[in-house]
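Our platform keeps sequence and structure together, in a single record for each protein. Because each token names a local backbone shape, the row as a whole describes the fold. One such record is reproduced below, unchanged from the form in which we store it:
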Amino acid sequence: MVDTKTIRRRDFLAGIAGVTGMAAFGLPFVPKLAVAATPAIEAASEGAAIARVGIYPALGISRVGGSQKWFYAPELPGVPANPEGGFKDGSSLIKKQVQRFRVFAFDAEGRVIKELTAADAKIEWRVHVANTKAAWYGFVNAHDNGANAPGMPTRMRNQYFASNEQREKMLVIDPGAVTISGTEVNWSGEDEAYAMKGRFWDSVDVGLGQVRTDADGRLLVVPADGISRSPRGTAITNFADNDGWHDDWCDGPVDAKVTLPDGQVLDADGAWIACVGPDFAPEIPSISTLYDVIENMNWEQKWVEPPATPLSFRQHIYPTFRRLALMEWVSAASNLRQGWLDVGDFSSEAYLAQLADPSEANKAFRQKVFSAFRDPYNMGPNAYKEEHFKIPLMPGDGVDHNGSPLQWFQFPKLQYERLRLWAEGAFDNDFADAALDQVTDLDQLPVEQRPHALTEAALEPCSGGAFHPGVELSYYLRLPALYARAADPEAEAFRIARGNRASLVQNVGRILDFTNATTGEDAPIGPQMAGDLTRWMGLPWQPDAFSCQRVAMQTDFPVPVWWPALLPVDVLPEEHYNQLMRTDLSAEQRVKFFENRVWWARGVPGIGYHANASYWDGIRNMIAVWQQMGFVVQRPGPTDPDRPEAIPQQLFVEVGRGSMEQRFDWVADDGDMG
């Protein structure tokens, strides 16, 4: 069951005010469509012959959910998914996010001709996903940070299975390749021929999702249900590494064979799918995204052109400021930012208008704002103190190494470089683009922008750090050896390199460190096979989702948080929202409800009189209660004549939260009890 409502922005600009091009209201909550300028691709001339075909997005993201209802992953950069009826199905079950893949045709010069559908060609899809987490190595920290935050060697998970043969039989969940062709094949999801199922512990069947096609023959990768379990009932003992457990995340290659009407057969440039956990604040992007991370790697390798000036404020700058403003809805440290950093209110329309002003007279203001961002080039011995109270207040890859300059979150250098150019005034204020504001569907973009727009839209909602190990995927995505371009200068940016090992089990010795992760034949961070991307993540995934919330330190204010844009920390609950909307309450009372935020993970460690409820209770319980967690989504603020000025016109509210009671099926009529 799919929410077929067109994915579109909740709000468009009501009007353009003054020379700044700012909206009359609602900033910075308006998602603004903007498509990356690189890699630059041109449109082919009319009648051009098809010489090559490729699958997009190059790396797609599906998200697990326990409901059989689902919605499409974002397909327009800057425009979040907006499933009809919300992100739950009405029974506390989370809807699945389904990645849709398309085939585009190119001429001999690499120019885009068109998307190919079932009306133009026969498309035979092939998908091979696997889950190899239990057969991989444990996680302590990222291995690629050098002397500033040395990677710590890790041992194999489930090392009591000593032989590779045992490990493959007992620990690898491998459904094998599944093929599909045609239109609306398995649309109901009931045909077992298209299910992706494997076995764990040689005794338990594990579903990793299924494939379908839509009315145009495009591929849909439907993820699994988010189930984690231990066949032997093994205890949870770690946030990331738990022997005897499996979950149903997976990843692997996506291929297509395309037969044209003239009989010509072409193998498409392959893509990759990763099926990962839910995004619990889907309208709030991370301060740095996975797209930013991979784009930065391409820039550092000179695989894409450096930033051309003047920059686009709408495309290159506004997204960062908008993300900062929206972080206030999921993190107390961000909401109270003015208490620890002398910087303005990114939620203010007037402030954002000044940010968009490229004039020389405004340069001192821009430079002051720029100085509030953490400098990724400062690697000095006192950087951990000098860069502490900078944007954003989030831990970094080097949190395990006290005094490391990487103790705090680091921006990808390309993102920081664009901010530097913005501060210099090397940008155009192109925020107002009435034509682009009307785009609600991929097919409304120029044809040459559509292929890469799909990749950007897929990766933009994903976390770009810190990688400890991360939310969806991890640090290896910033290393060039992982990509096809490392070996083939003609390969497209963002495409994952393909491996050809004899087995999905990969044994590099007793321990895994940076050296054996990146060197030798079939290095783990190199050409990939099914299961290779997700194997680095927490096993199972739920304990790490609970583990990475706040980080208590010596100073009580402000408190750093990990990944609030996907796993919120401090939220405005629906109960408070309902009260602040009441017109019979005084303005003072309504503001109290607005200002009082609560912990998103409240109740996960336990409810009632739990004097010993703890971190360990939380990481264990999250496996059972993850679908009870609320989603932070946009809701309208009060509009009555007595609306308190302190309450904005648009709010982000935690909705859909269920009960944390696990002992029985509690309903409100049962009353509260310990």
Notes: DSSP finds 15 helices and 23 strands in the chain. Residues 16 and 23 are 5 Å apart (CA to CA).
